[in-house]
Amino acid sequence: MDSIAEIIESSKRITALTGAGVSTNAGIPDFRGEGGLYSSGKYDPDKVFDIDYFVRDPAPFYQFARDFLALLKKAEPTRAHLFLAELERQGRLKTVITQNIDGLHKRAGSKNVIELHGSFEESHCMSCGKEYSVEELERMIPERCGCGGIVKPDIVFFGEPVKCFNEARVAVESSDLLLVLGSSLAVAPASMLPYHCRGRIIIVNKGPVFAVTGGAVVVNEDLDSFLRSLPL
Ligand SMILES: [Zn+2]
Fold it and tell me: Do 72 and 102 form a contact (C-beta atoms < 8 A)?
């Protein structure tokens, strides 16, 4: 544990890559985990996040979105979110790259955040391009713009490319430490990012990790307990 703390302490250009595991302690279940979207049976994930289905019928997605936004209102940033925001304030962490759509890194105070899968912060009409805030989105029933177009939150659906991947790759390439927190590295292309790292890699995830590069330190532990045990 000392050596992990030492690696973090001695690093000056840290990039973090985070997944669902940083937010489960905030009460937001991993979509793929226990109690998550894919196992709850309440939603059909093939319909909820499929862009072609969404364009034909946005109702299943909106049912999910209302529940998710209600969950987000109650959620507070976790120790892991706050830890990364603090590292950035100290000038040692340059970029947070996240696969999450909950916006909790920004709420924790992180400034330079790349949200690969977007967020609910803004939505746009798919026909006229009009922008809607998350508050406006919450009030929208039915889910139509004044022009009749479908309003789509700026999150990435299946069948759409992730956002800012090149920016994320450059951040990883230029870092001396990549901290992978709460991600099993199962979902491409985020799972490819560690292969671009020329510095040290520390992966903390409760459960299996699927894309481990040689030399990475892997810690299979709950993230917040791990951070509590760090002598930092
Ligand atoms: Zn419109």
Answer: yes
Task: Determine the pLDDT at residue 230.
Answer: 85
pLDDT digits (tens, 9 = 90+) for 79-110: 999 999 999 999 999 999 999 999 999 999 99
- Catalytic positions are 117
Please give the single-letter amino acid code of residue 37. Answer: L
Is 1-26+78-117+162-232 a CATH 3.40.50.1220 domain? yes
Higher pLDDT, 106 or 38: 106
Q: Provide, for the chain, the percentages of residues in helix, strand and coil under a 3-state DSSP scheme, each rounded to the nearest 5.
A: 40, 20, 40
Give the Å distance between the CA of 148 and the centre of ligand 1. Answer: 6
- The domain 29-74+120-155: what is its CATH number? 3.30.1600.10
Cα 177 to middle of ligand 1, angstroms: 44
Query: CATH 3.30.1600.10 residue ranges in the chain?
Result: 29-74+120-155
